[in-house]
Amino acid sequence: MSEVRTKALLAKSASRSLADLSSVERDRALELMADALIRNADRIMKENRKDMVKAEENGKPQAFLDRLMLNETRIGDMAKGLMSIRQLSDPIGETVAAWVRPNGLEIAQIRVPLGVVGMIYESRPNVTADAVGLCIKTANAVVLRGGSDAINSNRIIADVLAQASLEAGIPEGAIQLIHDTDRSSAVELMTLSGIIDVLIPRGGGGLIRSVVENAKVPVIETGEGNCHVYIDDDCDPQMAIDIVVNAKTSRPGVCNAAEKLLISRKSAPRLLPDLVRALKEKGVELRGCPEAMRLANGIMPAAEDDWGREYLSLIMAIKVVDGINEAIEHINRYGSGHSEAIVTSSYFNSRKFTSQVDAAAVYVNASTRFTDGYEYGFGAEIGISTQKFHARGPMGLKALTTIKYVVHGNGQTR
Amino acid sequence: MSEVRTKALLAKSASRSLADLSSVERDRALELMADALIRNADRIMKENRKDMVKAEENGKPQAFLDRLMLNETRIGDMAKGLMSIRQLSDPIGETVAAWVRPNGLEIAQIRVPLGVVGMIYESRPNVTADAVGLCIKTANAVVLRGGSDAINSNRIIADVLAQASLEAGIPEGAIQLIHDTDRSSAVELMTLSGIIDVLIPRGGGGLIRSVVENAKVPVIETGEGNCHVYIDDDCDPQMAIDIVVNAKTSRPGVCNAAEKLLISRKSAPRLLPDLVRALKEKGVELRGCPEAMRLANGIMPAAEDDWGREYLSLIMAIKVVDGINEAIEHINRYGSGHSEAIVTSSYFNSRKFTSQVDAAAVYVNASTRFTDGYEYGFGAEIGISTQKFHARGPMGLKALTTIKYVVHGNGQTR
């Protein structure tokens, strides 16, 4: 049997008894795993050095090397991450709803683990610890498939965590890392229906599309954000500038950053020059429709394919629209269903926008940058789902759970 | 463009404005659709006659003809079904949760339609009306792909419903039926990612497996039920007999009927002869392990492949097990994750069973036959999900919804 199938089956088998451990036992495992990372920091850095040397030899860019590199501080942060997951309240066993039927049957909807979570990710080795922590907290077994660039780092981290978890009574096999980093091992993982209960890709658009395209198991699609800010006819001008600048520039490389500015024809002559000036001061390259180019200086022409693109950098495209209806139409046509914002003083337009825009998160007078598990108060984040199925928007621990109906009777028949 | 893609895109486009209709408007549509079925009963029966003639010519069995046949009573029942969906409370727009963050952001989780629901089903034309009713109630557009045997019936029913819905202001295109009943049209529907938001197959195991295997869009797997009743060491003997007989014989052709009886080695000598007698009186064919065959008369030997089978008929296989641990192990190995029951007087064993059995519905001292949207009090049933993702167990209207985060601020930036 292949490595992927063997390890996934071991995880499946471990998931049965894992689901039966108490919260106390799973939290104890998170503590022991955090301790073990710190105690084994030297071994982890030594293995990480191998990955770094190979990446340097392969001429990888500095930003790549920076994501790959582990030092004592970063290993400490991984341990702190596990401890902060430990602090969260346990979703498993929660009674979501319960009721009694006229015939006396007591029906309860109980939150239970999904079973086996698969994670496919790229070069950052800290994802290994984070994914293990989230899965053990929610009593799920986990099968990790990291990228080839970080394989030595991922192997030692997974080994250290698995070893430490055993001491806390986590069943052997619950934490699995696929050593084969060939593309075929990722594809095999995507096809294990009946074994992998959910697959979460974490990484760039190419990885996510490949998983969505090839998977035969349930997938949570995360990440792509072509987010818009729409400036309505009536609005507070300073608020408009603050929100657009924040949404575009506070962290341009993340999925909840704004990529597009839509502005109503009524507001554009008054606001666009100041908006453009504020964005240019932050170093943003601007592209726009002909009308935007006429109203402010320093805007390059936008091409049709700009409207659907996620730049993930200091670029923003600007379009002047008739008003709220064209804005909503444009967003529903070109947006990725992630985060969309309106800046408005109009009661009716705020309601129209939140009701008609089809996205995971819709904002009135606030920055798109708030779409985040921590900002929403979930205390952890599995990712941000851009699909509508199972989970949508920032995902906390509950995204790794399902429900079970538990029905108590005293002999009822039908 | 193909018929399937064209119609799915029309449905997608209609789904945007459909989501914005009020509950009153959608309920009005259900009333008008119910009226229209009654008014057009003659036209529907005429078209149904064509399907019946073809089925008779093709030598279809009587049970098949009975499922296909429509008369005034059955058309009246379809109309009544729409009116009972109308009576249900509207899940759309519900605030699932709402909270305020320290920075003043008001975050609300709002229930919204999924968008476009695809249904692939077989010969029963009443599914057409039922599916349309459930989708319009939840403000979803619907793309129907029924079987070739009922194509004339399905076309007239879908036409009548679509026409009536327009009068209530449902956007044109929201109700689509694929006329092409070739296998390729079903396969094409399964691959329309980004257009079809969820696909629900309703029919036999072959159809469901083909959809799960081929779909590139989210699927809700329904139906297969290899359900067990386990008789524990200590239990009320009459309750054990009542539950087993009810679970097996009250409606043997449905997915929540029991297919297997597990009995503890301690209870078997005392209870098995009476159990076998009661089942045989109801005409049940019994197969069993060698130990069961020694303890009672009239049991045929079971083959290994019996333990995983869903008979959907008056057959039951019996296995004597060591006790609760072997029962749980057997169920988790051979069960389909549908409905599982224990008959016990033991507090600890009842808890162990509900906690360790991995199924959508787990029963203590009640028949598996209760796994049903109506029996659970949902007022409607889309199907019974045997997957863990998005929906599990009997599905009411909520399974056709997702959530959207609506965030109100007063200028917050991050």
Q: Which features would summarize this protein structure in a list?
A:
homodimer, 414 residues, alpha/beta, Aldehyde Dehydrogenase, Chain A, domain 1, Aldehyde Dehydrogenase, Chain A, domain 2, four-stranded parallel beta sheet, 14 helices, 42% helix
Descriptive overview:
Two copies of one chain form a homodimer. With 414 residues, chain A is α/β, with parallel strands linked by helices. The first copy, chain A, has two domains: 3-221 and 391-408, Aldehyde Dehydrogenase, Chain A, domain 1; 227-370, Aldehyde Dehydrogenase, Chain A, domain 2 (3-Layer(aba) Sandwich). Chain A is built from 14 helices and 16 strands. Chain A has helices at 3-18, 23-39, 41-57, 62-68, 72-87, 126-137, 151-167, 183-190, 205-214, 237-249, 268-281, 290-295, 324-334, 347-356, and strands at residues 95-100, 106-113, 116-121, 141-145, 175-177, 198-202, 227-231, 258-264, 285-288, 300-301, 315-321, 339-343, 361-366, 383-385, 393-395, 401-412. In chain A, the strands form four sheets. In chain A, strands 10-9-11-8-7-12-13 form a seven-stranded parallel sheet. In chain A, strand 3, helix 6 (126-137) and strand 4 (141-145) form a beta-alpha-beta unit. In chain A, helix 2 packs antiparallel against helix 5, helix 5 (72-87) runs parallel beside helix 6 (126-137) and helix 6 packs parallel to helix 7 (151-167). The two termini of chain A are 46 Å apart. The model of chain A has no long low-confidence stretch (mean pLDDT 95).
